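#struct-pred

JT: dropping the chains for the assembly here, can someone run the whole complex?
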Amino acid sequence: MRKQELDTPYVIIDLDKTEQNIEAMQAIADKAGIGLRPHGKTHKLPQVGRMQVDAGAVGLTVAKLGEAEVMAAAGIRDILIAYPIVGEAKLARLVRLAEQADVTVALDSLDVAEPMSRAAEAAGVSFGVVVELDCGFGRVGLPPGQAVLELAQAVAKLPGLRLRGLLTFAGQSYDAADEAARRSIGLDEGRVAAETAAQLRELGLEVDIVSVGSTPSSRYAAQVAGVTEIRPGTYVFGDLTQVSLDAHELESCSLTVKVTVVSRPAPNRAVIDAGTKVFTMDGGDSPIGTGRGYVVGRPGITVAWFTEEHGMLELSQEEQDIGLAVGDTLEIIPCHCCAVISMFDEVAAVRGDEVEAIWPVAGRGKVR
Amino acid sequence: MRKQELDTPYVIIDLDKTEQNIEAMQAIADKAGIGLRPHGKTHKLPQVGRMQVDAGAVGLTVAKLGEAEVMAAAGIRDILIAYPIVGEAKLARLVRLAEQADVTVALDSLDVAEPMSRAAEAAGVSFGVVVELDCGFGRVGLPPGQAVLELAQAVAKLPGLRLRGLLTFAGQSYDAADEAARRSIGLDEGRVAAETAAQLRELGLEVDIVSVGSTPSSRYAAQVAGVTEIRPGTYVFGDLTQVSLDAHELESCSLTVKVTVVSRPAPNRAVIDAGTKVFTMDGGDSPIGTGRGYVVGRPGITVAWFTEEHGMLELSQEEQDIGLAVGDTLEIIPCHCCAVISMFDEVAAVRGDEVEAIWPVAGRGKVR
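RK: done, full complex below.
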């Protein structure tokens, strides 16, 4: 099948570009001599997870236990759940997961670690643990200092748990004013993590994982001695948010949404068959002045606004002259690719114009 | 099962409140002597669609062909697809749908109507058509005037199509400054639709549907003579956006998200296991000063900000004194219920504390 035959809206993954994105980030990690552990929450696709591991990634990161189960079922062996696992139902699933994969969990309290320890011990399995360090984002994690050292020491003593090291996420890189600020955040994140790891080693603890990074900060944090791995996610496809952060080239964005024009109520207005239930409200405006998306090959079209199932396009005079009719299809690069893929049950994996496969988004809807 | 046993995040539908919401809107329509055709895009649940029809609704509205297929499969007979159906693949499905339900489609151009006519004629079926009139929202639809009359006349002549009347959507009611402005928008929408319907009748056309309304404007548009039906959607559950528009009472909101605290990194901060991939970025802040959601029974907790899988809560001193620990669960009324339900594969239908049923969100992911 050719992509021209796909009904709309449909998510199209360009395989050539995706492979290049995977290789480019792997090269950054390889050059720094550290591991790459891509975040699977971006793609939620075991097939892409396998591509990343086959290209040299040390394993995968996921946000949810359900995503971990999907990746383990696809044969991914080394999985970091960058999320505290809380509650009996999830602990029972975590035990089953640990029987088929090497599982490490990020956490920031004994309230999470102790029930994990009891569940592991009762089942005769073990879970890796990384302690989450907050380097300024203010989400999960303890700030650098005595508390984080004490938590790591306590975790190291709990049966069924293996203290692996530390994890940070410098999400503030998304709000940084410019590239210099992002560089500073990335370097700082790496430095704080490496210093804390050194303190843990002084206390006699083994630390083999010092895991850092968001897509915009990864390339900087990777340069800091002592960091052992980076966890970028969005780099695999790229999107307009990453372009606006100088973290991705527009031409390398490999995920598009194919849409159809369903109404032309005015010469300068067209309506497409996708709104927030496809593109979501995530992300700011396009950095290249095209609104809430970028229409590939039609830079004079602005993705002006969305309602749930409608997208309103504004056409420049030049685009009106080129023409756009009911039934015409377009491909649009979204503001936030991770959000878009969450809205679809399946995507098309495409090389050139040829649809190589329809992939179920196996990790979608794994909210628990 | 009791709702206390549901793992998180989980969407909980309170059946008692939902039934009351359904009855209250049906009473508004009944009092005005017009039909209620609820928008199914809010719930995407055939079970709730049936509740609405059983309570007196004339049929259902949907946004997507895939949603119509789900509702028809559940035995809903009268379905309005408030969306132009474009492309051969969808027309083939529309033909099959018309074999099992009475289907009416909204459109605003002959570019949509003519292929529909050809498909209907070839298959020996017929589609109802309502012409979409733009009463100021600037989305799909032609403005009042000659063009809309000409389109209706042309549609009436096309084989396989049955001109049913007109449809408007006053989405600008969501941006109105106050209740007086919303009232004005609703009355204006009804008046414009009724006047255009009268013009069509003068031209000798039969008009049995004059369909208006968003949830905030429905109760006003319903009062205008000549309007035959209203199409509110969100009223069935309510959410903080509707509360802020004086269109719903907080106490009547019947959809909540059950969540678990997974981190307590600071005395005034808690992190829950749901972010934008559950709550989405839709909707503004809560009208009652509680941020991006309202924690039932805990008014001193602010839902401060989200990332994809994390929700950050801020606790007042009083809430800190009450206490909130890792593992505690909360129920949160979201900003936009239609968006939240789209993120889940299933929801719990609950009466009191008892889970009466787990419903698959059968209309979710029906993007095409």
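JT: nice. The longest helix of chain B spans residues 179-202. Chain B touches chain A through 57 residues (CB under 8 Å).
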